[in-house]
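sanity check this:
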Amino acid sequence: MAGQQTLTAPATVVFTDASIGEALIYSWKFGDGKNAESINPRHTFQQPGTYTVELTVTNEDGSDTATADIVVYQKSSGNGKDPDADNGKPPVLD
């Protein structure tokens, strides 16, 4: 799984599953009470905070879980961009 990602609120992220093999069930938890069951979901983090995103992939052999932290900052009042932001690079979960 990729390391911590840093974004500016509101931040829309397209998550990409990079697991190997065929999965039957994808279960995403975004750390803000929202969930998804698609392979590569899109999610918007509306508020600043640190969110632990969890992906559980299940197939006939069992399941495996990966996590990544997403840090969302309040938009600065200067040029509207946080200097620590990751320029919208999507997190990759492997």
DSSP finds no helices and nine strands in the chain.
